[in-house]
UniProtKB/TrEMBL annotation:
Gene Ontology CC entries for this record: cytoplasm
Reaction(s) catalysed (UniProt annotation): beta-D-fructose 6-phosphate + ATP = beta-D-fructose 1,6-bisphosphate + ADP + H(+)
Site (Important for substrate specificity): 178
Function: Catalyzes the phosphorylation of D-fructose 6-phosphate to fructose 1,6-bisphosphate by ATP, the first committing step of glycolysis.
UniProt GO BP: fructose 6-phosphate metabolic process
Protein name: ATP-dependent 6-phosphofructokinase
EC number: 2.7.1.11
Subunit structure: Homodimer.
């Protein structure tokens, strides 16, 4: 567990919020008091570290409407941009921001930038979309993003020039670690020019690997979809002599999707994730044991697992600088077939790579609830003048976190934690190190 200093959780503000919220909006507001905070840590061992200086305890601001506004709704213009890979629930976030802006704050100037940061570079030629209640009314039922998304950088100076030209006061950035790094570049440029433009992020990744937040929206929906695919692999495995269903799931550097889908589906015998390196020979021997005993097996492998086993090929990177991974699924399929052929044992491997199919689906009901609340939290934070922050979920609360924190590292599945131990217990797999 990362140990933080209290100051690391302070949220930057554009200035003093002076407008009385209820008087300005003309309706009742159940505001959150700034001093209502929750503990960042909850493990007693972590809390003990602060027993000598309780003032140093790191505390999290709760999300929600504030007693005072920084922005005057009648003069506020909002922008939304969605970047990086798709994730179930992005549209619900967009809808929630638009509805909260219109209905709670009476802000009607809401614009959606097209195709990620590309839409913030006017030279690319993608004018923003004007968003209103009608245009976003049904989008929560759709996968993807109605605004489009992209990878690849744009110059922060060019983007801030454009925001200034359009008179945007608040920009909501929906994206992963890369997007938040891009947003921090924007925040620096905005501060340099002493502009009053707030930047509020909504963290997005189906990999669930964003630092310091406990749950990423869309993760549950992706796991749900992955579970359906694993069920198909199980059927295929049971339908053939010594059938082996092999499913590759997304998860670049962390195995959250693979581990959760394994637990959710109940039929997986081997779950391979990037956090738990394995020796191929040991894994194949255990697979042979399983096949001899039960005559079928299901393997789930996260795309980032076992990369060290793959033959060296020249690394390539996507436009955002993310390393392209080698295909561990195809590699394992070949190795399994080779191994069983050498042993003169029949094995029928059915390899399923659902790839994008698990992340482009519509969100589950629970993810929709989550997205709705994240979108609302983002608007409340921005209207109070908070900036360079994200909204997130931690210790059972919607909270604010500085953007600088969430770009520090990518969260990994804890190998000594409960989830991974449960995977080991339920699959019966052993350590293949
Ligand atoms: N270090 C960085 N500085 C500035 N901008 C960045 C940086 N890294 C990424 N970006 C920009 O952020 C956008 C999205 O980044 P990226 O493609 O890495 O996806 P992401 O937000 O991490 O989402 P995910 O990886 O979950 O799909 C891109 O336009 C990219 O150029
Ligand atoms: O092919 P794309 O769209 O660049 O993205 C694929 C990657 O995006 C993610 O869905 C999210 O980071 C990863 O799980 C996956 O490796
Ligand atoms: Mg990323």
């Amino acid at each position: 567990m990362e140990i933080l200093a209290a100051a690391e959780l302070l949220i930057p503000k554009l200035g003093e919020a002076k407008l009385h919220t209820e008087q300005t909006l003309g309706h009742k507001v159940e505001s959150i008091r700034d001093e209502d905070k929750i503990l960042f840590h909850r493990h007693i061992a972590d809390l003990h570290r602060y027993s000598k200086d309780p003032d140093a305890l790191p505390l999290l601001e709760l999300a929600g409407p504030r007693h005072k506004l920084f922005f005057n709704p009648s003069q506020t213009r909002l922008g939304i941009v969605t970047c990086g890979g798709l994730c179930p629930g992005i549209n619900t976030i967009i809808r929630s921001i638009v509805f909260t802006a219109y209905q709670y704050y009476g802000v009607e100037a809401v614009y959606g930038f097209r195709y990620g940061y590309s839409g913030l570079n006017p030279k690319v030629g993608l004018p923003p979309l004007k968003l209103d209640l009608d245009s976003v009314d049904n989008i929560h039922a759709l996968g993807g993003t109605i605004l489009g998304s992209s990878r690849g950088p744009q110059d922060a100076k060019v983007m801030v020039d454009y925001l200034e030209k359009l008179g945007i006061n608040i920009l909501f950035v929906v994206g992963g670690d890369g997007t938040m790094r891009g947003a921090l570049d924007l925040a620096k440029e905005i501060a340099k020019r002493q502009l009053t433009i707030a930047l509020v992020g909504v963290p997005k990744t189906i990999d669930n690997d964003i630092a310091f937040i406990e749950r990423s929206f869309g993760f549950e929906s992706a796991v749900e979809e992955a579970t359906r695919i694993i069920a198909a692999a199980h059927m295929e495995a049971k339908g053939a002599v010594n059938g082996i269903g092999l499913v590759k799931l997304m998860g670049r550097e962390s195995g959250f999707i693979a581990a959760n889908a394994t637990l959710a589906s109940c039929v997986v015998n081997f779950c391979l994730i990037p956090e738990a390196p394995f020796k191929l020979e040991k894994f194949l021997q255990d697979l042979e044991r399983r096949i001899k005993k039960r005559h079928h097996a299901v393997i789930v492998v996260a795309e980032g697992a076992g990369q060290d086993l793959l033959p060296d090929s020249k690394s390539t990177f996507d436009k955002s600088g993310n390393k392209r991974l080698n295909d561990i699924g195809a590699f394992l399929k070949n190795e399994i077939v080779k191994y069983f052929t050498q042993k003169n044992l029949e094995a029928n491997v059915r390899y399923i790579d659902p790839s994008y199919a698990i992340r482009s689906v519509a969100p589950t009901g629970d993810d929709n609830v989550f997205c709705l609340m994240l979108g609302q939290s983002a608007v409340h934070a921005a209207m109070s003048g908070r900036t360079a922050m994200i909204v997130g979920y931690r210790n059972d609360h919607f909270i604010h976190l500085p953007m600088t924190l969430v770009t520090r590292f990518r969260k990994k599945l804890e190998i000594n934690g409960r989830t991974w131990k449960t995977v080991l217990d339920t699959t019966g797999q052993v350590d293949y190190k």
